[in-house]
Amino acid sequence: WVGCCVVCRFGGEEQCYHQKDECPRRDSEEWVNIEDGIQRVGKELFGGRRMERFSSCFSCGVPQALCNQWKEEQGDGGRFQQGLGGCCQYQGLLIIILVGSMAKYGEEAMGVIEELMAKDGVDGRGRGGWALWFGKLI
């Protein structure tokens, strides 16, 4: 997914490794809707400080153990700190995939998310319920 155009990837295009400005579909309504969704979801998830400490990278949303921006503190049970010179290699990836899947699969994608939340005993209904679940330490 890194370096992949979300519209082309979910659209099944063979050539999907490009940025939005290089995308042949960049002026489509689909791209406009996805960009709007990325802004809204990003604000809800990262802007509201919904991520628990040490749960994930605050730039991309993936676990800190997988992101180059974070270094594990030695012997402390999984705590991380931002590494000097570390750079997030997955910038915004969680949100891009989430919004892309919602745009492509709609209610089916939301059904999968609700099922996963239910397995964790979380009621995602109501404002920001899903964002609180995404921000949990796993």
Biggest sheet strand line-up: 1-2
- The count of domains is 1
Spatial extent as radius of gyration: 16 Å
H/E element string?
HHEEHHH
Give the count of helical stretches.
5
Unreliable segments of 5+ consecutive residues: none
Main β-sheet, in a few words?
2 strands, antiparallel
Structural class: mainly alpha
Please tell me what the overall shape is.
Answer: globular
Distance between the termini: 22 Å
Percentage of residues assigned to helices: 40-55%
How many beta-strand elements? 2
What is the strand and helix layout of this fold?
Blueprint: H1 6-10, H2 29-47, E1 70-72, E2 80-82, H3 93-105, H4 107-119, H5 129-134
Helix pairs in contact: 2-3, 3-4
What keywords describe this structure?
138 residues, mainly alpha, two-stranded antiparallel sheet, 4% strand, globular
Description:
- It is a single chain.
- This protein has helices at 6-10, 29-47, 93-105, 107-119, 129-134, and strands at residues 70-72, 80-82.
- The chain has 138 residues and is mainly alpha-helical.
- It has one domain.
- A hairpin with a 7-residue loop joins strand 1 (70-72) and strand 2 (80-82).
- The protein is globular, with a radius of gyration of 16 Å.
